[in-house]
Amino acid sequence: DAKTTQPNSMESNEEEPVHLPCNHSTISGTDYIHWYRQLPSQGPEYVIHGLTSNVNNRMASLAIAEDRKSSTLILHRATLRDAAVYYCILINFNKFYFGSGTKLNVKP
Amino acid sequence: ETGVTQTPRHLVMGMTNKKSLKCEQHLGHNAMYWYKQSAKKPLELMFVYNFKEQTENNSVPSRFSPECPNSSHLFLHLHTLQPEDSALYLCASSQEGQDYNSPLHFGNGTRLTVT
Q1: A46 reaches B (C-beta below 8 A)
Q2: A84-101 pLDDT, tens per residue?
Q3: Whether A86 contacts A71, CB under 8 Å
Q4: Cβ-nearest to B50 among A34, A43, A94
Q5: Cβ of A94 and B96 within 8 Å?
């Protein structure tokens, strides 16, 4: 299974943009890039996914490097409710393997 | 409300007990999953069911026995567990098509404590 590498933790100020990086240098041509987040005492929640092109939805944007070896999850205006662990995952078949993720702390 | 309901939310059991965790999804999905989340460790994929057929058993000990009677229900039967099996057990579902990359929808888990 292709691996992803994320920083252990990041900090952001409320109402500022946040860029969460993910490296996946061993990605294969058919791997999709998925992002999930897990708030305390809850199961993980789907955020966004993409293959090659940048993607936008109501929660976030996903920027995928041209060589697909890295991606960035962008939260345009962080709120206190965005404090969570964010996971970047590569999917080629429906076996989702989670890494350690990035713990995002949002300061008021 | 995630569309995936897990019961019970909390369970305490002794090592000689037999118990079952239940998961029900109200999303019309055709794939269901069990994950284990231990303290300070990444989520571990345990079992995958596609169209009620088990397609993945990720080297899970036989004291964990899954059952998927239909595409909406998933059980995890537990017997003779060890204290190290204490963890948050998460159920998820997805709608799988040809490309098998549909998003997962998780329940909020069952917090299991083995004494």
Answers
A1: yes
A2: 999 999 887 767 778 889
A3: no
A4: A94
A5: yes
Taking only the tens place, the pLDDT of each residue in A23-78 is: 999 888 888 999 999 998 889 999 999 999 999 999 999 999 999 999 999 999 99
Whether the ω angle into residue B8 lies within 30 degrees of 0, i.e. cis, is yes
SS3 (DSSP) at B65: strand
Q: What is the pLDDT of residue B100?
A: 63
Closest chain A residue by Cα to residue B91: A43
- Beta-carbon separation of B101 and A44 below 8 A: no
- The pair of structure tokens assigned to A107 is 């300061």
Contacts of A34 in chain B (CB under 8 A): 101, 103
Neighbours of B14 (CB within 10 A): 10
DSSP letters, B19-48, are EEEEEEE-S--SEEEEEEE-TTS--EEEEE
For residues B100-115, average pLDDT: 91
